[in-house]
Amino acid sequence: MDLYERLNQQTYIIAEMSANHAGSLELAKEIIHAAKESGADCIKLQTYTPDTLTIDCDNKYFRISDGTWNGENLYRLYEKAYTPWEWHPLLKEEAQKVGIDFLSTPFDNSSVDFLDELGIEFYKIASFELVDIPLVTYIASKKKPIIMSTGMAELAEIDEAVRAIRSQGNLQLALLRCASAYPAITDEMNLRTMSNMAETFRVPVGLSDHSMGSVGAVTAVALGAKIIEKHFCLDRSIENPDASFSMNPAEFKQMAADIRQAEKAIGHVKYGAAEQEKSNVVFRRSIFSVKDIKKGECFTEENVRIIRPGYGLAPKFYPQILGQTALCDISRGTPLTLEMAGMPK
Fold first, then answer.
1. What is the CATH number of the domain that holds 315?
2. Do 47 and 144 share a domain, yes or no?
3. Which domain holds residue 303?
4. Looking at the whole model, is its pTM more than 0.70?
5. How many domains does the chain have?
6. DSSP H helical segments within 267-289, as ranges?
7. pLDDT for 314-338, tens place per residue?
């Protein structure tokens, strides 16, 4: 897959399933169908096991002390959230059936290899893994396009990861602005950073959005985002670690529609009347006779004025018309022409 070619078509909308399957393969398949129907271009998984992310340990370092997952043990949380690897080929096949792209985020070398053998066309690198330069380098060595989130990252950290990818001769890279809070708040998105990343690294950019609602996503598109990623669920009442900050199908569909409408509004550089404006050009101002004018009579401020509508001479000719002699009788309310004053076109 040529990622850049794909991004040149329209904003690429990714539905992140993550843990929203709640441990059910059938629910995961339903999510893929619903994502397609809701306007997503791609369904994304996360490929890990609790053991590829952490160790089974319950001391204070492995306990979450605030936020959405307050009180959780990391290992137990990942046990609840992970997608069984044996589901991946089935879900990839389901995605192909409904005509939606299939993407996943690997979290260690074994998951990179697994996805490569599965025939995945491009990789996602999560914000928390951006600093794992050995992993980033290994992913890049597969020579497949990469979308990398940059939540929490300093500019120098992003630069280091980008250099690691490019060191492998992998030049198809897109960067996502991301607020790595769950849920994130719009006030701290700082979307101008996304625009600055595009300028700094000369790559397509987008937004991995963990906020509620679609204002961040639509604003990002207006600022040049080529990719929007949002967590997607069938219903937030289905209990799982990611439900509270995920969009349901109706919300996602509205966001996708808003994005497509924003794209149309952005349009392209075009001066002059738009198609919907053409019928209104006549309501511009132009030069008209406002009194009956006899042949041989001079044009003055009393008998000619710049008024609406726009059927007469353009207002710029007004200084030249004043003082000229009428070459014919002109009735009140007639749009003036250069010929009436014997002036060259």
1. 3.90.1210.10
2. yes
3. 275-341
4. yes
5. 2
6. none
7. 999 999 999 999 999 999 999 999 9
